[in-house]
Amino acid sequence: MQRYDNFINGQWVAGAQYTRNINPSDLSDCLGEYAQAEPAQVAEAIAAARAAFPAWSVSGIQARSDALDKVGNEILARRQELGRLLAREEGKVLPEAIGEVTRAGNIFKFFAGECLRLAGEVLPSVRPGISVEVTREPLGVIGLITPWNFPIAIPAWKIAPALAYGNCVVFKPADLVPGSAWALAEIISRAGFPPGVFNLVMGSGSVVGAAMVRHEQVDGISFTGSVGVGRRIAADCIARGAKVQLEMGGKNPQVILDDADLRVAVELAAQSAFFSTGQRCTASSRLIVTDGIHDRFVTALAERMKSLKVGPALGEGVDIGPVVSQAQLEQDLRYIEIGRNEGAQLVTGGDVVKGDTEGYFLAPALFAESTPDMRINREEIFGPVASIIRVPNYEAALAVANDTDFGLSAGIATTSLKYANHFKRHAQAGMVMVNLPTAGVDYHVPFGGRKGSSYGPREQGRYAQEFYTTVKTAYIG
Ligand code: NAD
Description:
Elements: E1 3-4, E2 6-8, E3 11-13, E4 17-23, E5 26-36, H1 39-57, H2 61-77, H3 79-90, H4 94-114, E6 121-124, E7 131-138, E8 141-145, H5 153-164, E9 168-172, H6 178-189, E10 198-200, H7 205-214, E11 220-224, H8 227-239, E12 243-247, E13 252-256, H9 262-274, E14 284-290, H10 291-306, H11 326-342, E15 345-348, E16 365-370, E17 385-391, H12 394-402, E18 409-413, H13 417-426, E19 431-434, E20 454-455, H14 465-468, E21 469-476
Parallel strand pairs: 1-5, 8-9, 8-11, 9-10, 11-12, 13-14, 13-18, 14-17, 16-17, 18-19
Antiparallel strand pairs: 2-3, 4-5, 6-7, 7-21, 12-20, 15-16
Helix pairs in contact: 1-7, 2-4, 3-4, 3-6, 4-5, 9-10
The protein binds nicotinamide-adenine-dinucleotide.
Residues 145-150, 172, 174-175, 204-206, 209-210, 213, 224-226, 229, 232-233, 247-250, 281, 380, 382, 408, 453 line the site of nicotinamide-adenine-dinucleotide.
């Protein structure tokens, strides 16, 4: 079995232990054994990043841009192969996996350009004869902690801006998906970054992640994952004065109004609730439907769901791959049971599906006649499970959409400009979609949410500089 090591100070370093990376579509398929860093190795990676920072932080932007562009080009050139790896370890179907890899490549190329465009400001002082410069400088050593559901795109959207703006990085991927992270690290290792600028430490959150979060030499933590873990990380960071950025869960509403185009509404709901096995922070899990279209919508969506093929991520014509793990499958099934017990009506799906291989296959589940107070409408399930909430009109739909602890993405299906514009302004979410799925975003514009979904500056696009740089105001007399 091939072993994959950590990358520290420009060297591949063996782990104290290794874990097996298992394919959720076929539990007999192991992708390899991946190193688990010990706290001492995490400290070595942080020390290497610290040592590399003074030179890297003032390095030429052409060299930075070239290295990032090289990473992006290689990812794009290898998108089929990296897509297969991603599909095999995480379980999203091959076209989605290739799409995610493509996105990662584009992100590196975007930030290859962005590091040439880090502008400042020059202002007159209120004191005559003095000028004021406002510039941005790199933050320092940054710890990056990522979840399993986007094994290459989320690492890319943190690593690329961190390096572009002159920071040094210690990256810890999710324990379930070290394969894509390792492949990305291997590409970065050959792109021309000096030793110590980029480090990979694989392993569990409680050991490797916690060691990064608490280390006083780490200037900032960018985290994507669950609310509970994120809030604990924020508390630890704030306690020692480190900068922190959190992207967390969602319970995203998709409003469907009477005047919606039924075909469009059904397709976007099916896409955003169930594709990627519902394992997207931007997935629509609450479908809020007005009376006049309700029955037609439920029937048509249930029909569409029956046409979705559930199976292995690399299987021909498969729409929905497996759930990522046994623990996640159990969580999904538990919530389906909770929904039933709460009195919601299971319209279709929710059963474990047997395949040719042993994997975590689950038929997408749709509940109807659910109410906003039910747990299935309040807590993030993070699987292919959605529920319909019937409402009398737009005003009620908006109120239900906003009645949540989360605020990542919110969608509306309508042909009314009036309601589309009103929703765009009044949905309490970081991202609003009109006649589009709540999931599926561009790579060059800000990404993030409000309320329990996010904390700190936005990620991606030009807005990424807010977290990865610190502002300096200089007075020149
Ligand atoms: P998770 O919170 O369990 O883990 C996320 C990362 O944190 C992993 O790398 C994990 O090892 C690490 N971690 C766990 N405990 C830690 C600790 N004590 N200290 C430091 N690090 C620790 O989340 P997950 O199950 O990997 O991912 C699913 C969650 O991610 C969902 O809630 C989903 O909504 C969220 N998510 C959010 C976004 C977004 O941008 N808003 C995107 C994707 C996923």
